[in-house]
Amino acid sequence: MVKKIALYLTVVFYLAACSTLHMKADGGSEVNEGATSALYTMMLTANNGDPDVAMLNLFFTRMPKGGDIHHHYSGSIYAETYLDWIKKKGWFIDACSLKIVKVSERGKCQALTVDALRGNDVLYRKLLTLWSDKDYANHFHEQPPPDTNFFNTFGYFGPVSDEYMDVGLNVLKQRAIKENISYIETMLTRVGASSSAVFKQNESDRFNAILEQTTDLNELTALFNQIAARLEASKVYKKHVKDFVEKVEKVHQGIDDERFTMRYQTYAVRTLPPLQVFTDLYAGFQAANDSPLVVGVNIVAPENNHVALINYTLHMRMFAYLHRLYPQVNRALHAGELTLGMVRPRDLLFHITEARQIADAQRIGHGVDLTYEQDQLALLKDMKTNSTVEINLTSNQFILGVQGSEHPYQIYADYGVPLVISTDDSGVSRNNLSHEYMLLASRYKPSYEQIKSYVYNSIKYSFMSDKDKAMVTKRVNQRFAVFEGEMAVLGGSLQKKLGPGLQKGQQR
Questions:
Q1: pLDDT number for residue 138
Q2: Which residue among 30, 255, 406, 460 is least packed, with the fewest CB closer than 10 Å?
């Protein structure tokens, strides 16, 4: 208690001094920044050395967050919103599987309207546990393992996720504005080009087999050249790319304004056959080359999937090949979303390393298996200069069971690797960016200066154009000036209210 009182007194006197200086300086930003830093520091140890989580939630909800740049569109829409869309479409929910059915047919299970589902509280609550991570801790004994439960959600809401994309993007925009987020870079969807529209089944089988067996780089490059030539000769394929670019332009209308900016990544799914993965990546690189709104290409799906594991190096070589063709297209890769026991030890040795050394990824999503990589120190040295790590604390805790000191955040931070804080799939995880900052602060206690550096990193290492980065940076600067002014006032108010409380504390 004595230590707590001493800390409060130190902060209170500092805030009082800042308040006086603030009046003399007529709103000087350095003064307000110092007061905000002092208030934040107090929050970290306010409860007998433990963080004041409620105050941190208030603090980070108001704090400008810059951007959320590891963000999945479909995984960021809440299940409740998807049900609104299903109702609008006139579709149904199967009472047994709780999956979407588009036509009501007689069978073993009743096809429920959305209103009927919501009227059945047991089924409705069960649906929320399957379409998201909601209440998993209370029902884990009835559900699949957490990583399976997480990735299964996309199979439930997938049929409706793209039906109202323009509406969904505006939902995300309004949510971001209310949370003081200036920029979202979301993984929107695949381009949609199908390899089966270009290659006959026997050709696909042959290419898939050869791609998986070929290790010689020259031979692999020759194969990629053959596949690319076939895709380029296909009018159907080219139409898919063109249609995707036009769709992005259409759904983006009205998104950017003086408060908010959004850009998009496209991706391949690493669990699909290699010919389809290459087709998706090739189409993605071309779309990003053609559209200023499509700012990067990624690869998604469970990294511990059997197909994803055996083809991991092949996928990195696809990125390397396409990077040579389209050097201006940005690359962010999910890599190292693994931990001990999830896969064989050999599969923990190289994923982040190959994402950097082969694919030349500018940003690494997750990067959790760092401590198990073959040469971690060389990797850290490379990443400090050449890449950024996207930290997703809620996602890593749920999917991998990695949290606290088990997470490599502190290693990255201590080594000076640039970091950004992000949500991953806020609809599935039912979190937000403010919560991610709260977790970061309460678990690792970074300084306010570090917190601000992560905010600005989310702009600096985004894939926006330099012009857009300058515009968003100016916006965030203005918002920090307002925020830090508010926190200085809050600190002054806290100073006035602490006096009696401190006296009572001393009497106890």
A1: 79
A2: 30
